[in-house]
Amino acid sequence: ETTFVQHKMDSAWSLPDGYNFPKEEDRILQLWKGLDAFKTSLKQSKDRPRYTFYDGPPFATGLPHYGHILAGTIKDIVTRYAHQTGHHVERRFGWDCHGLPVEYEIDKSLGIKGPDDVKAMGIAKYNDECRRIVMRYSTEWEMIVNRLGRWIDFDNDYKTLYPWFMETIWWVFKQLYDRGLVYQGYKVMPYSTGCSTPLSNFESHQNYKDTIDPAIIISFPLDEDPDINLIAWTTTPWTLPSNLALCVHPDFTYVKIKEKESGKIFILLEARLESLYKTEEEYEVLEKMEGKTLFGKKYKPLFPYFEHLKSSDPSKGAFRVFTDTYVTAESGTGVVHQAPGFGEDDFRVCLANGVFQKGDTVVCPVDATGKFTKEVTDFAGQYVKDADKHIMKKLKEAGRLISQSQFKHSYPFCWRSETPLIYKAVPGWFIRVESIVDKLLANNQKCYWVPEFVKEKRFHNWLRDAHDWSISRNRYWGTPIPIWASEDMEEVVVIGSIEQLKELSGVEVTDLHRETVDDITIPSKMGKGDLRRVSEVFDCWFESGSMPYAQSHYPFENRKLFESGFPADFIAEGIDQTRGWFYTLLVVSTALFDKPPYKNLIVNGLVLAADGKKMSKRLKNYPDPMDIVNEFGADALRLYLINSPVVRGESLRFQREGVRDIIKDVFLPWYNAFRFLMQNIHQRKMETGEDFSHEESADLHVTNTMDKWILSFAQSLVKYVHQEMAGYRLYTVIPRLLKFINQLTNWYVRFNRKRIKGDAGRKDADDAMHTLFDVLFTMVRMMAPFTPFLSESMYQHLRLLLDTLPTNENASIHYIMVPKARVQLIDENIERSVARMQVVIELCRVIRDRKVLPVKFPLPTMIVIHKDQQVLDDVISLRSYILEELNVRELKVASDQSEYGVHLRADPDSNRLGKRLKGDFKRVSDEVKKLTDVQLKEFEKIGEIDILGHTLTTEDVKITYSVEAADTGHFEANSERELLVLLDCTPSTEMLEEGIAREVVNKIQKLRKKAGLKPTDPAEVFYDVIRGDDGNNVAVKELMEIIARQNEYIESSIKLKFQRAVGNPPSGGDVIEKEVQKMKGKVGSSLSLWITRIGRTTPTSPNATPTPKSTGGKQKITITVSSKAKSPPPPSGQKVTIPACKFVNVAIPDGKSGLHNPYKVPFRATVLLENPSGTRPLSFCQFEFEVARLLRSPNLKLDFYQSDGQKLQMDTDLFKYHSQTLYVARQGFSDSSCLRIHDEKIVTPFCNYEDVTLSNGCLATVLMENPAGVALPIGNPKQFAGSLLS
Q1: Is the dihedral of CA 577, 581, 583, 585 positive or negative?
Q2: Among 70, 111, 623, 792, which residue has the fewest nearby CB atoms (within 10 Å)?
Q3: Distances (CA, A) of 750 to 45, 742, 756
Q4: 1237 Cβ partners below 8 Å, 6+ apart?
C-alpha cells in the first residue's frame, strides 16, 4: 500500500509545465470553500487581541469598479497581515442602502419628476420600489469580491436599512441634539434640481465639470439720478428676477465714467475697466470714489416682482447698495448683484443689512424641481437654466443689458443626476460643525495618515474651513429624522430609541421608515394637540458617518465589545472620501466622544483610464475588471494596483499591459524558482530513495556564501516588511518584496542551479535545496496577504515537505503566522559583498551588450578598480561567481586606474548643444574634448561647467572612461560612481570553441523544453551537422570537430548521452522532438537534433508503481483486460484481483443520509484515487466533488463515514482507505447514529473496469460503469485510454 509519506511526495511535485494563473485561482477558491477557510481562521483567532477595522459601505445599485477593487485590496492586505501577526480581525461587509443613488434610479424608471408625483403614488409604495432594487447587484458584488481573494464576512453584514442600524442613528442624533449641536435653520445650500434635495458642501465638491454659461453685464439706475448706472456682472441670469441688492467693496476705488460713443454714465471698479473696454479712449473718467461712499444708495429694480420690498426708510428694505469685503477685483465689475435666496454671501449681506429679518421667508421663487414659481409671472414654470435666454431678451428690451458674452468655468454638478447644481435657500436641520472645528483639528492630529500630506494639507484645510453640516433631506427613502414637534415648533421631542417611541406614543414598531413612523403622533405635554414628525430624512452620509456605532447596534447591544475596540485600528478609502466618509466619521465621533474614530488610515488615489480621463461606462474607455481577472488572475491585478502611485494618494492610468507584466516579470520567475526546487527534490528522491523533509530553524548550518546571502537577505526583508507595515507604508513594502523576488530568481537560483542539481555533491545540493526551500517558505508567508492565491498554491505543496504532519490548524497558509525575522541569519557584510558583486556583473553585462559579445563566448580577463580596499576584498570573496556568470577566465583588482591607462573622456551631446549654441557649437565642442580628468571629476561633482561663456550641465556632456595603454589589451570600460571595471574583449580560439559548445547546450535545452520533458524524464539526444543555406563543407567539418572536442562538456551540462547519428537517429526509440537550427557561432553550418525516449519494460506486477513519464509525443496503447470485478466477494480462499490504480468504493447507507439517489439502482460507486497508477493523486476536495458529481449535484457538500461510523476529516489521507467502502451523507445532515451502516467486506471495485498498459510503461484503469449498473459512454476503451495522459 502507498505510504502517507510517498503520497505526500507525489502531491508535492505534481506541478504543471505551464501555469494558468486564473484556473489555479479557481482551484484555490474551491479549496477555501471546502475548508470554509475565512470563518475557520476567525474561529482560530477568536481569543487573540482584537484589531478593529471599519469597512465603508458602498451602494449595491451598481457594480464594483477599479476604485472599489483598489480600496478593497488595500483593506484585505492590511487585515490579512493583522490576522497573520496574531490578531483577531472581524471583517464585516456593509451596504449603503438609503439616499439619492437609490431614489434617483426609481425616479428614472417610474418617470417621477418631483414631490407631487411621489405624493400621488404614496410614500409606502415609493419606498417599496426602493427596497426592491436596493440590493440589485449584491450577488455580483459578493461574487466579484470573493473572486478577487478578499476575505470579508457577507453573512454577518450590516445594511443601513436594518431597523437596529436605524435605531442607533436615532440615538446618535439625540445625543447631538441634547448637547445643543443641532438646529433648524434657513440656509443657502447646494441644491440638486434633478433629485429635488439640498446636498451637503462635501457632496457638492464631488463632480465638477467644465461648462459654458452666459456672462452678462446689466445696469442699475440710481434713484437719485437715473442717468447714473451701477453695472454688475453675472454668469447666472436666472437669479436676476430675485435681485434685492447690490454689493461693493468698501475699500476699493470705484470710478464714474462717461462712455464716449453712447454718452451713458456708469459706476464700476477702477481695476475692472478692462472687463468692458479695450482702450482708455472709449471712456472719460468723471470721478473716483471709495466703495464705502456708495453704501445706502437706492436703485431701480430690474423686474417688478418684488418691488414691494423697497422701503421709504433709507436704512431698511431692498434695492440698496451694501458693502462687504468678499467682493474681489479678479473678475466682473466689482459690483455684485445680490439674490439672497440663491447665494450664501448674498444671504448673509442682506440679512446683516435688514433686507429681511431672521425667521422671515426669504425671496426664493424656484420650486423643488428648479422651475420658477408663479411669483415670477414672466417666466413661471420654466426651468431656471432654460430661462436664461428669455431673461436676457427681456433685459435687452428694457435697455438694461449692457454686455453679453460666454464664460467657460468649472461648475459643480449633482454627483447622482448629473444636472448642474444651483444654490438655493432651504429650511433644514444642521449640525453645528463650526463650533467644534478646533476639536476636529485636534482629533485629526491624533490620527496617522498614509500618505501624510493628505492629512496635513487637503484634510486639514477642509476641516479648518468647515461649515455647519446640513443633515436633512427632503426625500423619502432614508432614516426619518426622529423629531416630533408641534405645528409652531415650540414643543419639540427628539426620540432616541424604538422603546422611547413606544413609551411616548403607545405604538410599537418593527420598522423605522417613513411609511411606518410618519403617521405616529405623540400627545403634547403643553396642550398643543398631537406632535407630528418633521418630514425630512437623514442625509445618507450621516448614516455612514455613524456606522461604527450602528453596525454594533450600540449602545443597545455589544456595548463593552464596541467600547473596547473604539477607535478603529484601521480604515481605508479613496482620496475623494477626504470630504466624504473620513470627514463624517470624524465629525460624528468628535461630537459624541471628542475622539477620532480611527487610529490609522490609508488614502488611495484615483484609478483613471489609460488616456488619463475619468473611467466612463458610457465611453467604454477601460477594460472590464472581471475580464482582466479572467485573463491574468486576481493576484496580478491586486499587485499591479498596489505597486502603483495610487497607494501614495496619486492617480494611476490603468494599463492592461501593466497587469500582464506582473505575470511575466514577477509571478512566472517566482513560480519557476518554486517549480525548479520541486523538480530537484523529486530527482533527489529518484536517485537516493530518500524523502525530503525540511525543518525551519534559526541556524541551517550552511557554509556556502550565496546560501548565507539569500537567507540573510530574506530575513532582512522580513524585518523590513514588519517595520514598514507597522507604518502602513504599502508603497515601500511592495517594491522591496518585488526586489526580493528578482534577487531570488535572477541571482540566487541562476547562480546555484548546478549546485541544486547535485553537480557539487549531494551534501552541497541538500544545503542549497534546504536554503531555497526555507527562503520560498518564508516568501510565501510574507506574500500571503498580498498575493493570497499564488501563495496558497505554493504552500499547499510546500507544507507536505515540512517535518510536521498537515493538520486542520495549518490547512491554509492564511491560518499560519507571518514569520518573525531570524536575526541570527542576517549578515550585513555578506549582503554588502553580494550587492557589490551584482554591480560588477551588471557593468560587465553592459560592456558585452555594447560589443555584441554574448555570455556564451568566454573572455580572458576582467579588472575591477576601486580606491577602497574593502570594496575590492568584497569582489575577491565572490570571484568564482563573477567569473562563472560573466564567462571570464581571470579576475584582477586594482586601486589605481592610471596603472591601466584609464582616463575620463567627454563627448558633447550634439543634438542638445547644436540647437542651443548654433555657431558656437564647434568651438565649445573642441574645448569640451580637451577637459582633463581633474576638470571632469569636478564637473561630475558640481553638475555644471562654464565653457567659453556657456554653462553646460551633465545632461549636455557624456562622460565615459577610455583605456589607451598599449600593454593592456583590448579593454572596454564601464563604471558606476567610483567603481570601474575593465573587460578584455579579445576571445581566443579555445574560448570561441567553448562558446559554440554553450550554444549547442542551449539549443538542446530549449528543444527539451519544447518537447515537454522534465529533468527526470529518461531520454537520449542525437545530432548531425549539415550545411546551412549559405554554408560549405569546411564549416560543417569544423563544427563536427568542435563538438567532438567539447562532447564531455556538453553531456555533463545536459546530463544525457549526446551521440552523432547521420541523417536519422537509430531505431528503437520514439522520436519525441526534432529540429534543425542554424549555428550562430559557426556560420555556414546547421545542427540537426533529435530527442528520443528510452524504451522501458512493462511492469509485470499490478502493485508495481512505475515512474511517471512525459506525455510528449503520441502514445502507443496496449489494452490488457487484467480483471473484471463486481461484488459479491469471491469465495474464501480464492485469489482476489484488483485494478492497477488505488480506489475506494462509496455507498449511500440506509437511514437518514439526506441524499437523493438519482438512479434506479442502489448507489454503489467506485472512485479512483489516482490514474494512471502512481500519478495524479486525488485530494479530499477533489474526492468530495467526484462523489457529488456522481450524485448529479456537483455543488453538494458531503460527509463521509467509515464502516465503524467514524467520520472522515478534511485532512484525511484517502490512500489509507484503498479498496475499502466509505459511506456518504449530506454535510451536517446527520451523525453516524442515524445511519444504518452494514459493513460490506468487499475489496474489489463495485464497478466493472479494465486495466490499460500504456507504451511508456504506465498502468491506467478505465471504469466501464459508475455507479454499478450505470454504463458509461466509454465507446472503444482503446481510444478512451488514449486521452488519459493528454
Answers
A1: negative
A2: 111
A3: 40, 11, 10
A4: 1149, 1150, 1201, 1203, 1205, 1223
My answer on whether omega of the bond before 451 falls inside 30° of 0, hence cis, is yes
Specify the 3-state DSSP secondary structure of 425.
strand
What does the alpha-carbon distance between residue 234 and residue 1042 come to, in Å, rounded to a whole number?
Answer: 90
Cβ proximity of 92 and 158 under 8 Å: yes
**Which three cell numbers mark 494?**
427628539
Burial of 1109 (0-12, 13-18, 19+ CB in 10 A): buried
pLDDT range class, residue 114, cuts 50, 70, 90? confident
Nearest to 172 by CA among 496, 484, 586: 496
The two beta strands, 245-248 and 283-290, are unpaired
Q: Are 134 and 127 in contact (CB under 8 A)?
A: no
Encode pLDDT of 468-485 as tens digits. 898 998 889 999 999 999
Cβ-Cβ contacts under 8 Å for 477 (sequence gap 6 or more): 98, 99, 102, 103, 106, 126, 127, 130, 131, 513, 537
Among residues 953, 899, 914, 1074, the alpha carbon closest in space to that of 1004 is found at 1074
Across all residues in the chain, what is the average pLDDT? 86
Alpha-carbon distance of 19 to 23, in angstroms, equals 9
The C-alpha atoms of residue 562 and residue 552 are separated, in whole angstroms, by 7
CA gap 212, 406 in Å, rounded: 6
Return all residues near 1139 (Cβ < 8 A) that are at least 6 apart. Answer: 1102, 1122, 1123, 1125, 1168, 1245, 1249, 1251, 1261
Alpha helices in 966-1046 (DSSP H): 989-1010, 1033-1045
Grid cell at residue 1094? 528510452
Decide if pLDDT at 1068 tops 60: no
The DSSP bridge partners found for residue 1253 are: 1118, 1259
Strands 153-159 and 92-95: what pairing? parallel
> Which residue in the block uniquely carries the three cell numbers 453645528?
432
Question: 413: which DSSP letter?
Answer: B
CA proximity to 77, closest of 635, 648, 582, 629: 635
- 973-992 pLDDT, tens digit each: 888 877 889 998 887 777 78
Cα–Cα distance between 592 and 554 in angstroms, integer?
Answer: 13
CA angle 825, 831, 837 (to 5 degrees): 145
Report pTM: 0.71
Enumerate residues 6+ apart whose C-beta is below 8 A from 787.
635, 638, 639, 667
Q: Pairing state of beta strands 422-431 and 1150-1151?
A: unpaired
- Could you give the residue numbers annotated as active site? 57, 96, 541, 577, 581, 614, 617
Tell me which residue has cell 441634539: 177
The shares of helix, strand and coil residues in the chain, as percent rounded to the nearest 5, are 40, 20, 40
**Residue (of 478, 425, 388) closest to 191 by Cα position:** 425
Q: Write the DSSP assignment of 683-708 as a string of letters.
A: HHHHHH-PPP-B---S------HHHH
* Cell numbers at 1142, concatenated: 488505488
Contact 660, 632 (CB under 8 A): yes
Beta-bridged to residue 59, according to DSSP, are 96
Burial of 751 (0-12, 13-18, 19+ CB in 10 A): buried
Tallying the residues shown for the chain, one arrives at: 1286
Q: What is the pLDDT of residue 1069?
A: 59
- pLDDT grade for 1094, boundaries at 50, 70 and 90: low
Could you tell me what percent of the chain has a pLDDT over 90?
Answer: 47
CA distance 1154 to 1188: 13
Residue whose cell numbers read 502602513? 728
Read off the pLDDT of residues 325-364 as tens digits, 9 standing for 90 and up: 999 998 899 999 999 999 989 999 999 998 988 767 889 9
Alpha carbons 819 and 1011: distance in angstroms, whole number: 40
**Ramachandran class of 913: left when φ > 0, alpha when ψ lies in -120 to 50, beta otherwise:** alpha
Is the pLDDT score of 1062 beyond 80?
no
Backbone angles phi, psi at 476, to 5 degrees: -130, -40
